[in-house]
Design brief:
mainly alpha, 12 helices, globular
Amino acid sequence: MANPSWNYRLALILLWVTPALWSTNYFVARAAPGHIEAHLLAFLRWFMVFLILFPFAYKELRAAWPLTTFEKKDAVITGAMGMWICGAIVYLAGQTTTALNIGLLYALSPVLIAIASVRFLGERFSPRQSIGVALAMLGMIWIVTKGHPMVLADLEIRPGDLWILMAVVSWAGYSIRMKAVSSRFTPVTRLTVITVGGLFVLLPFTLLEWFVVTDYAVTLEGFSLAVLAALLPGVFSYLAYAFMQKELGAARSGTVLYLGPFYAGLISWLLLNEPPSDFHFVGGAFILLGIFWVSRAPR
């Protein structure tokens, strides 16, 4: 068995790496319109995740088969929150709202996770960690408002904003449920089971989308985006997040979402030829300082 202290140090490293993997979903969401529909993208993404994980989970699943009724229900509920609402719904939202609104609304998620963790999981959140969360949120706001926080007063509520708000609440619920609901499976096997539950929920919506959408789009580039989404913001990031939750708790792990705008700026620079501005460095400094304070808190 691995040394617990080594696991803890690895979790701290993943605290910085995981949001970089998740942020590739910004690129996927931006490039997807016209190449692949939202629900099909989400379905293909998680079906590929299942194909990747199943060989590693097969022996454990075979030994534990059949699944209990509770495990089946948990897979569907957790899969709906993590793979449908935080997958296809987010892709849909990006079609009718702005990146500014999405960034601001997603910033609510770590706060909700922290509050729920203290309330329902009994996790301790020190004053220094609370200050770290506040600093990270300040940095996030500074980045998404491009150094002009007063634009918050001019935000326009759009249909996509409501979808994103739904995803924010759902991700908080997913995070708390992953920590609160005990499982007899290892993280890989549990994610495999949850992925099947998510696919079960996604399938009817994917078929409905196929019948309803007039100009149904699916191209080779769209399929390539699904592969990218399956690997980086899919398999690797979800397993890393589950590992961090086990070692650091739901509240501290949830703070990785604050690094999203920071890494998104780097991805835009490297992949989309959009160089960072002064506000990226200022906001990034607040975010990094905040995450450092949270991660350095006593275990």
